[in-house]
Specification:
By secondary structure, the protein is mainly alpha-helical. It has one domain (23-152, 173-368). It contains 18 helices and 2 strands. The chain has helices at 31-60, 64-86, 107-116, 123-145, 154-176, 186-205, 208-212, 214-226, 235-238, 258-286, 292-308, 322-330, 335-350, 352-358, 363-388, 395-411, 423-429, 432-458, and strands at 100-102, 317-319. Helix 4 packs across helix 10, helix 5 (154-176) runs antiparallel to helix 15 and helix 13 crosses helix 14. The longest helix is centred in the N-terminal third of the chain and has 30 residues, at 31-60. The chain is globular. Residues 1-27 are annotated as: Disordered.
Length: 459
Amino acid sequence: MATVHGSSERTPDPAPEQRPAPHPVDHLPPLTKLLAGGFQHLAASYAGVVAPPLVVGAAIGLSPTEITFLVGAALFTAGIATLLQTIGFWKVGARLPFVNGVSFAGVPPMLAVVGAQADPRDALPVIYGAVMVAGALGFLLAPYFCRLVRFFPPLVSGTVITLIGLSLLPVAFKWIQDGGDRPASPTGLGLAGATLVIVLLLRRLLRGFLQQIAILLGLVAGTLIAVPAGAVDLDPAAHAHLVGFPVPFHFGAPHFAVSAIVSMCVLMLVCMTESTADMLALGEIVGRAADEEVIARGLRADTLGTAVGPFFNGFANSAFAQNIGLVALTRVRSRFVVAACGLMFLLLGLSPAFASLIAVVPRPVLGGAGIVLFGTVAASGVGVLVKAGLDKGDNLLIAAVSLGVGLIPVVSGSFYDDAAVPETLKIVLDSGVSAGCLTAVVLNLAFNHLGARRSVRGD
């Protein structure tokens, strides 16, 4: 039977309903859900973004207007870093629902730079020069640093995820204390308790989209309750400018000092370690494993955002663990929701007046919601540890010691202050996540790998 050339049948394209649905991480929600979800991430991370510039600005002795400018710059650069992480380009960006912002781990070395200057106002150019070099170095190291993922089995990653949550819970407690070390006031306890109860009720009673934004609704309700209690301060919003751009090198051209560069490079390695742990944690939660390639792209976004930040008067950026809890709680895994948050950061950085509106949310209200967010992260880590098999071999011992070492700076922030510990090592030890992570990696190698090889030889 002759074959008729040119008349071969083409396989029809699959019907739209037969095409595979995109992964939830790559799903683009409707505009309403996109904006509401993005604003919820903004509310959860705003305090973390603005805290470092407030602390550093006060230590330098900047005027309220200059501190406001520094805060706007932090918001603007957090927006850039978040968009790099969620949307990305080329081999930059993990394409996961990550918020990136100013790393609070950078505050101690930055304050050390401030103390080393004859005139504290000379500190910012030195800080910016060191941050630029550290970010560039981290960008070059990213494709090599990501290979450490092989040392993060579920036992290690579960320990680190648990530590992330436990390390963040004291932040919520300080918010309830209104940011200080004094005992919580009855008003603060009441606002935090009311916000916590409202969030829990909303999660229990609502369904669908409203349930997903229960944290945001709880923050709004808590703030409204705080108005008659006199706990809402509107002065920052009243005196803020409507429009303001973070002019490049507003505080002077960067100055490159060797000692500051060394400290910031050590900090960059610490931030990269924490970001690796955060990516592993988020990969578990969203159901898209963070392999070496994903981690390399994510670290490039972190470090590129850090290197670019000083041009716009920003500091070192890293992934924000508190938003992992929000993703776990709401189950909204779309990276575009967090990209919307990044765009909002950019806009807030261009409008101090709107940025100050977010600041009117009382800290005790944030603390009540923070208990839910940060506790969710810790509970997720416990779930990973259970899957890792704590009943096998010495896994329970490894997790116990690592958690203990990681909680030292969380429980006692001044634990290493008077010890004969080099400053560069202290940067690592003062980060509970980094200290616990390194402990878990070393113990896992010692008990589950090196020991196993010895027993084989002995047989």
